[in-house]
Amino acid sequence: MDAYLIPAVDGVGYGLLLFVVAAGLTLAFGVGDVLNLAHGTLFAFGAYAAAKVSDGTWLSLALAVLVGTAAAAAGGAVLSALLVPLAGRGHLAQALLTFGVALVVGDLLVGLFGPDELPVKVPAVLDRPVDIVGHSYPGYRLAFIGVAALIAVVLYVVVARTRVGSLVRATVDDRDMVATLGVNPFMVRTGVLAAGGALAGLAGALGAPIIGPGPRTADLVLMLSLVVVVLGGLGSIGGALVAAIAVGEIQTIGVTSEATQDFAPFLLFGAMAVVLSARARGLLTSGRSAA
């Protein structure tokens, strides 16, 4: 069992990183009914900010988080504005537009920062290994697990226990009724897309030492986030958390185990196929709840 301890801890960290990203994606779909295929690009904003701004000091790391989060939040708001002309045209039109935006912005990022994956510097105290039951583990990843867990708790409290969260949940359930109360659903959607972008940028800035910024980063993060959203249920924060941890464990332990490492890349999609098949037969609910 000792052989699986560190991969299991790593899976929790990887899963929490995916959760912070996927939470924004599932809120965008649950509240705004927007299928945002540019979400991985918003993650890349934060990751590149960390690579370029962070120089190994706490101040620069905090500045990188601020810059990456703000840039991704602005990107989410811009996407909301771009989607206005497509109102009522369905998810295919949204997917085509956001995928096109992702391609264009991805090429711009490669042009600005180069075709190679960039290194990310972290404060020296976090760059040291720590001991976990006699096993060495990267200090930054352990710290990230704590921070990401805190983000998950705060996000749940905001969505489930605050007035803003009540408005978000009400918009998920019945946006027409929300409109009759004098609340503009478009502004709610814009706010949620901006918040979802901020979560992606925050995850990118904090997770850049784990998933480094590079030409394929946005595609990888988008693919895994979509898997998390599908497994967790569209619009469900709690489902996304459970699914993200499961995906993280499958990714890490699946590669570590000799019994599964040969077909580890297929485990995720096999699990997704089982879940989709069960939902098609009514054995599972897809659910569109923001909590």
TrEMBL record:
Primary location class: membrane
Record protein name field: Branched-chain amino acid ABC transporter permease
Cell compartments where the protein resides: Cell membrane
Xref: CDD domains: TM_PBP1_LivH_like
Family stated for the protein in its record: Belongs to the binding-protein-dependent transport system permease family. LivHM subfamily.
UniProt topology in membrane: Multi-pass membrane protein
Lineage: Bacteria, Bacillati, Actinomycetota, Actinomycetes, Micromonosporales
Transmembrane segment boundaries: 12-38, 58-84, 96-114, 139-159, 220-246, 266-284
Keywords assigned: Amino-acid transport, Cell membrane, Membrane, Transmembrane, Transmembrane helix, Transport
Organism: Dactylosporangium cerinum
One protein family per Pfam: BPD_transp_2
